[in-house]
Amino acid sequence: MNTRSLLSTNDQVIDAWAGGGLGILEGLVAEFVSGTNQSDDAPTAVARREEVADRVVTVLGARAWHALPEASHGRARRAARRAVAYSLAADVASAGGPTGARTDCWVLTVHALELLTVAAHFDAVTDRTRELLGSAPEGRLLAAWQMVNDGLAVVATTRHEWVGAGPATVAAAGWVLVDRMSRLLIAAALIAQAKSTVLPAPTVELLVNAARRYAWNHVRGPAPEAATATHVHRSADLVRAFATRGILP
Q1: Rounded to two decimals, what is the model's pTM?
Q2: Domain interval for residue 145
Q3: Which end of the chain is more exposed for a tag (fewer CB within 10 A), N or C?
Q4: Residue 249: inside a domain, yes or no?
């Protein structure tokens, strides 16, 4: 898919990534896996497998999310769809996917912020995450559950910076919020899947490993802080200075 052709409208970009992003990501990760030596224990091979494993986990998380009926997300459906579309595009871009993926991330960020800066949508996403998370599990899955639970508490500390803010200002750092909210949703979906009582035990163990790794990679860290008008101006000053010879050393 040539994502550059999708920039005619924001809705087209969202639809393309929400509907086809998982397939693109799966294809890229399959290429990584096929080029990985599974038996080589040399340090470089081990390092490569570690990166590939992280990319495999992004696919498993996206699959877990897409396995849920869209209607099940209730009030969070619209905001979640936009946020998860962003994370798919971001994962594709980081995996060396189509050149337009990074540009689409900017479009998807702004479109998601149109909803996440509204209290009802912000709260709907966090409520849906808690719903998917459910009660604390036993065993090794508890670590993943705790990271997501802590992540929800962290985003609550800066909720006031985002809700009611102007998208044109908070877009400067908006990807941080959009990414975190989408990762919380996906991690919670993966945890819910790993709680399955119908899947074979070896499969469940792999999902537990994936949930722990996904949460470790994507939902920890400081609270997503919103940009201010001053920050936006300072960013513009840096870009202008770099474009003008003789200002910066």
Answers
A1: 0.92
A2: 3-243
A3: C
A4: no
